Amino acid sequence: MILMNDGLVIYFSQTKRTEKIANLISQACKTSPYPIQVTVPYSSEDLDWTLPNSRANQEMENPAARPDLKPLKLELTGKPKIFLGYPLWWSQAPRAINTFLDTYDLSGYKLYLFCTSGSSSIDKSVRELSKTYPQLNIQAARRFANDTTLAQIETWLKSL
């Protein structure tokens, strides 16, 4: 079971869906969420997967793409558990998550992944992140729908 105040909630969100889930987890854990933000914000055209040359498509087609991030003032000491959230892009974590994981050493922390998606499973993203970052200690991973409630989040946390 997750104890209050012993974890951090870090998330990347562009359409507020993942932010909503991060806020619910933060509320349940009595901690503050930390948003991962790119230095150049995405426009709606950048995120439009139907446009072949959209920024999101270009990033996801290039496994080496690493968008620049704004600095995060994280204090990891005393926080053994990290909740890391993201939307699924092409069934994977967005490349901003890779930039974050390249920047911050999370080895030695228990990592709980969460994502938002209307229908895709989190499984492919977990496999890709585990392959790229074998030092991660991923404890659990869960996809949440847009209509997830605080009670559902609390039930998940109690199961961990």
From TrEMBL:
Residues 8-158 form the Flavodoxin-like domain. It comes from the Bacteria. One of its GO terms (molecular function) is FMN binding. PANTHER family: EXPORTED PROTEIN-RELATED (PTHR39201), FLAVODOXIN-LIKE DOMAIN-CONTAINING PROTEIN (PTHR39201:SF1). This is Flavodoxin. It comes from Ligilactobacillus agilis.
